[in-house]
Design brief:
By secondary structure, this protein is α+β, with helices and mostly antiparallel strands. Among the domains are: 60 residues, no CATH class; 57 residues, no CATH class; 69 residues, no CATH class. The chain is 24% helix and 36% strand. The chain is built from five helices and 13 strands. Strands 4-5-6-7-8-9-10-11 form an eight-stranded antiparallel beta sheet. The longest helix has 33 residues. The chain starts with a helix and ends in a 16-residue tail after the last helix. The relative contact order is 0.04.
Length: 339
């Protein structure tokens, strides 16, 4: 007897239903077993323990500063003979489980940590020296230290220097020009220097220089040397180079843009300021009215030019005031063709 196609299809559907039910039971059993046996929790952002002897530093990444109540220390346990690295928040809250080390492990790791710290500090000093050229000189002289307050000379230059060098060759094909003059070459040389120099000699002398080849005015290039005395010294201050002399008075204006020497001394309650200099700048005012520059000036009677301006006859003397009423075009009433 041959089974019908409907009975055959029903049998296959039962087989597929049984298989799917068996797979679902297996998955649920596996998840239940994993939940019962595995107590770990996968963090979305894994936390690295870092260095056990220096837990405040972690390799790579960007992290915030540790709170002020974070405590870290190494305690020796005499019962076990082990060293315990403890990390707590506050006094009692344990941040991480303690790490145990033997005496040899602790000593070896401590030596390695000290060596690493030493090389890191040495590398930072070399990097700082490479970033800025700031040489320091030490003068081994007691007299030098007594005069300037210290035996160190420090210079810090900053700026840029650009040099352009080229060669220009011209060839002119003009038969009217001699052949030797048709070809000509010239050297093109240009330099741009911007330098700021700050120096210090001991604790009393300071140096300052500003130099720019592209400055529009000469007074923009500054140079100054200053000496600062002590509180009990008669000589309080010395300035050389570009100096100023301001005055605390509205009647007499102080001088600016001076180049020379300035001395400030104190004799008891008497303060004295002396300046030896040349003035490298001046102040002037220009008035413009109606698109034209106007300037008032006075001529004294004794400044008149004698024997240069005179009248040809008495007629011009009598008609002078009347003719000058219509300035700037005088109305003399006479035309002179020949003298």
């Amino acid at each position: 007897m041959t089974p019908s196609p409907q009975a055959d299809g029903l049998q296959w559907r039962r087989i597929w239903s049984f298989g799917l039910a068996w797979m679902a039971c297996a998955i649920v059993t596996s998840l239940h077993a994993q939940t019962q046996s595995d107590t770990t929790f996968n963090l979305p952002f894994p936390h690295d323990n870092g260095d056990m002897f220096n837990p405040t530093e972690f390799p790579g990444g960007v992290s915030l500063q540790w709170p002020s109540n974070f405590n870290y220390g190494v305690v020796y346990n005499p019962l076990t003979g082990m060293y315990e690295v403890q990390q707590t928040i506050g006094d009692t809250l344990e941040f991480r489980p303690s790490s145990l080390f033997t005496l040899d492990e602790y000593l070896n790791y401590n030596i390695e940590g000290n060596l690493t710290e030493f090389w890191n500090e040495l590398q930072e000093e070399e990097d700082e020296a490479d970033r800025a050229f700031a040489p320091k000189l030490e003068i081994d002289s007691e007299l030098f230290e007594m005069i300037f307050g210290s035996n160190e000379i420090e210079i810090k230059p900053q700026g840029t220097a650009e040099i352009t060098l080229g060669y220009t060759w011209n060839n002119t094909e003009n038969p009217r020009i001699p052949e030797r003059q048709r070809r000509a070459g010239s050297v093109d040389f240009d330099q741009r220097i911007q330098l700021n120099l700050v120096g210090k000699i001991g604790d009393k002398i300071e140096l300052g220089t500003q130099f720019n080849t592209q400055a529009l005015f000469d007074f923009e290039n500054q140079m100054n040397i200053g000496f600062q005395g002590e509180e009990d010294d008669i000589l309080k201050n010395i300035e050389a180079g570009n100096i100023n002399m301001p005055l605390n008075s509205s009647l007499i204006a102080g001088s600016q843009s001076l180049f020379g020497l300035k001395l400030e001394t104190q004799w008891g309650r008497l303060y004295n300021t002396t300046v030896f200099s040349q003035q490298k700048g001046e102040r002037s005012e220009i008035e413009v009215e109606g698109g034209a520059q106007t300037q008032e000036f006075d001529i004294r009677a004794d400044d008149y030019e004698a024997n240069r301006h005179y009248f040809l006859s008495q007629y011009f003397v009598d008609k002078y005031d009347e003719a000058m009423r219509s300035l700037p075009v005088p109305n003399s009433g006479a035309m002179i063709n020949r003298i």
